[in-house]
Amino acid sequence: MERILLPIMIQDPSLSGIYKQAEGFYATEPYYLDGPVSERVAVIDFDEKTGAVLPGAKYIKERRRKTGYFVDEENRPIRFRNEYGKFEYRLETRAFNQVSVFATVLRTMAIFEDEEVLGRQLHWSFDSPQLLVIPRAGVWANAYYDRNTHSLQFFYFKDRNTGEWVYSSLSRDIVSHETAHAILDGIAPDLYDAITPQSQALHETIADLTAVIMALKSHNLVLYIIKQNQGDITQSTEFSRIGEQFGRAIKKKRSEDEDTTKPASLRELSEIKSFDKTDHKPHRLSVSLSAALYNLLVQMYEDWWDIETKRAQQENIQSFVKHGRRKHKDPKISGAHEALRTTVDDFSKMVLGALDYLPPGEISFADFGRAMFANQQNLHHFTAVPRDERQRAKKRIDWLIERFEQAGIIDNERTIREMPIVGNPLVKTHFEHKALKELNLDELIQSDWMAYQFANDHRRLLGIPRDIPFEIHPRLAIKKQLFETKDDTKIYQNQIIFKASWEKLEKNVVSVSGFPRSRRIKVGTTLVIDRDSQTIIARLHTDDDSDLEIARTRMITKLQEDKLLRFEDESVGPHGETLQNFVQADQSNEVLHLSGVSRLLHIIDTEEAG
Ligand SMILES: [Zn+2]
Q: Of 26, 213, 266, 413, whose CB is crowded by the most CB atoms within 10 A?
């Protein structure tokens, strides 16, 4: 493995001048080649005029040196010392754009692969090792992830107010947002074809919150914002505003005296947004969930800030007694730093760490809520974890439920929580089952046949209806780090993620003549197994709320109205390729089935952007 220092943009270029523009990140990959190219990510840069593939940033690795570095078109290292001896980056060069987008993709992946988050290596949903990254895919105010071409495509456009070129591949928010789409597609591939608006919206929320987590992990940005706001992040800040330069550049300044103190952005997550369960607009829906979770993050931070400020004040007293001088200039500020660092770790573990618990198929926000509940419940139950951390897990569950209720995502805690005695039909945690006691779990992981047998013999445990065919997903064996104590002791749990899914028919009451009267959707069950104790950590079934059925009908009606549905051969291009901007529809046996709905999801809802 090679560990090298790569540059990442701190904030959108036009916002520079407030603080440093780029900072370093240590990436660890098996190898690096010109491009940059590594084992799992490859930057392919096309010349805007000719469309030819450009050589890409050159990678220099001198024999005597352990690590290498990238140089620009004139063979100058893109990181150099300026006349004051300070390190700087050649921000204006094409090579910097190629290397910084590469670095931002790897940094985003590292956040998910953290031992305490997913605790495993990521897999792409497509059948090839590398995600292709196109930094300048053409002129358009947008960016997107496309499974069919295994790629992230970043476009550029002219700022409507300044006339300057805006490169979406230089925006850390947008690059980490699109990378999160590719990552989530590998974790929950069923979402790509889901017709439930909340399933689509969940993709958007995870993408936006990943951009927030990236911002919160930027040392320089945190320094700046804590100083600017005296540690208070309850109001709108660079953390809660997604895609600022982009938002500003696409929104025409209505008049010279327009109030620009409220910075424009693509999305603002600090304000709670009302939620309509039957809504069919993924971007609009996603803001309700993202804002609810962003406010949970702020609540977690405020709680830690209190603790860390008190700790800093204590340290000041002790240091004063001992040395006659204080340790922290301002305990509130140093407390804020510590609190933000711990909060972003806890938040990443809670939100991103719950993604492997998601049930397969068409899922809802409540399904995600239950996955986060089950993940925290596991921490709360795991006796090797220190008591105060287990208590904190319980508190985080309470806060999550409060935020979801406040946003109207759930009517009451029974939707998410496993209630005493009555339990919860969709989530059950910490129980034993004889089926597991005698089972060879290594075989269950390795052998598809064995896994199928197990599921078929225990349909009731998994909620699989009798006599219908079902699918077994690849099993994941994870050595998950649950906690690290102050003396750096790491506490691990060996988990197995087992997923089975099947198709369900539902009425298709879409008022379009000739449309099939029923449609098929995918549902399923996730079983999280504790490998060492051979017990079940959690079982989660896909949501069957009837409001979701209404929302699906609205989504299909809208797709039909917008002429975005293409049946059978209409959805294939002249060379047999799948047409990009359409949803494939199939109606064999008079049952409607749609696929590729996610293809319509880009960084901005072109309709909403106006
Ligand atoms: Zn998106």
A: 266
Distance 180 CA to ligand 1 centre (A): 8
Burial (Cβ within 10 Å: 0-12, 13-18, ≥19) of residue 450: middle
Mean pLDDT by 10 residues, the chain (610 residues): 92 60 93 97 94 94 84 95 92 96 98 98 97 96 92 93 91 96 97 95 96 94 90 87 78 54 75 83 91 96 96 91 86 94 97 98 97 97 96 97 94 89 88 92 97 97 96 98 93 98 93 87 98 97 93 92 84 74 88 87 53
* 350 alpha carbon – ligand 1 mean position (Å): 21
Distance CA 1, CA 106 (A): 14
Ligand 1 centroid from CA 585, angstroms: 23
In this structure, the chain runs to a length of 610
Q: Which of 114, 87, 250, 73 is nearest to 171 (CA)?
A: 250
For residues 9 and 27, give the distance between their C-alpha atoms in angstroms, rounded to a whole number.
15
CA distance 406 to 491: 34
The residues pairing with 132 across neighbouring beta strands, listed in sequence order, are 42, 151
Residue 27 Cα to ligand 1 midpoint, Å, equals 25
Residue 272 tokens, joined = 């709670």
| Three-state SS at 416 | coil
Residues 450, 443 contacting (CB under 8 angstroms)? yes
